[in-house]
């Protein structure tokens, strides 16, 4: 499991790789000046999936997809090429083949998107772990109720 550790006010303390089967009680994030204590009590469900945040102990996390950084460029390229094709400016077989290649790359980018869990309260991000079906995408009503008033906005890519 990989955790992007944040504290209660949303300050990022670095990324840590841990073995969730070992369940360490204490970690040292690279950007932190002190150890972070992990709360594993009730954080793992019967199937071995993460149920709640082990960094701050909050019971609510949401599912998010992490798209590769090239995604906006591929989408804009596909949109531009499709617009050119629809307007009839390019109808050659080579152009249509290029449009097909961009479509395949676009679908490939979507298949490479990784699913991760994010804590509503502290914003810690959990990757490379099994995610249960009961985790839902980000919900503004839950976020408003569960996050402190001075907490930062949700991280980018919370779709």
In short:
The protein has helices spanning 71-87, 93-111, 140-146; strands at 2-6, 12-17, 26-27, 36-37, 61-66, 114-119, 125-127.
Structure commentary:
The protein has three helices and seven strands, in the order βββββααββα. With 159 residues, the chain is α+β, with helices and mostly antiparallel strands. Strand 3 and strand 4 form a beta hairpin. The mean pLDDT is 86.
Secondary-structure map:
Elements: E1 2-6, E2 12-17, E3 26-27, E4 36-37, E5 61-66, H1 71-87, H2 93-111, E6 114-119, E7 125-127, H3 140-146
Antiparallel strand pairs: 1-2, 1-7, 3-4, 5-6, 6-7
Helix pairs in contact: 1-2
Keywords:
159 residues, 2 domains, 3 helices, elongated
Shape descriptor: elongated
The biggest sheet, with number of strands, parallel, antiparallel or mixed sense and barrel status, is: 5 strands, antiparallel
Helix-strand sequence: EEEEEHHEEH
Proportion of beta-strand residues: 15-25%
Q: Over the alpha carbons, how many angstroms does the gyration radius reach?
A: 20 Å
Strand runs, count: 7
**In DSSP terms, counting alpha (H) and pi (I) runs of 4 or more, how many helices?**
3
Strand order of the largest sheet: 2-1-7-6-5
Find the structural class using helix and strand composition.
alpha+beta
Instruction: Give the helix level as a range of percent.
Output: 25-40%
Low-confidence stretches: none
Q: How many domains comprise the coordinates?
A: 2
Distance between the termini: 21 Å
């Amino acid at each position: 499991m990989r955790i992007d550790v944040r504290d209660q006010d949303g300050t990022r303390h670095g990324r840590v790789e841990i073995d969730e089967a070992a369940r360490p009680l204490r970690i040292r994030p690279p950007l932190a000046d002190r150890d972070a204590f992990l709360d594993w009590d009730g954080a793992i469900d019967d199937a071995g999936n993460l149920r709640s945040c082990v960094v701050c102990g909050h019971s609510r996390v949401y599912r998010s997809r992490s798209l590769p950084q090239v995604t906006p460029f591929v989408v804009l390229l596909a949109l531009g090429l499709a617009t050119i094709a629809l307007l009839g400016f390019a109808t050659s077989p080579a152009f249509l083949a290029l449009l097909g290649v961009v479509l395949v790359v676009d679908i490939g980018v979507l298949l490479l998107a990784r699913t991760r869990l994010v804590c509503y309260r502290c914003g810690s991000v959990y990757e490379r772990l099994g995610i249960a079906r009961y985790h839902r995408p980000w919900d503004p009503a839950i976020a408003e109720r569960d996050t402190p008033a001075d907490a930062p906005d949700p991280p980018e890519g919370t779709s």
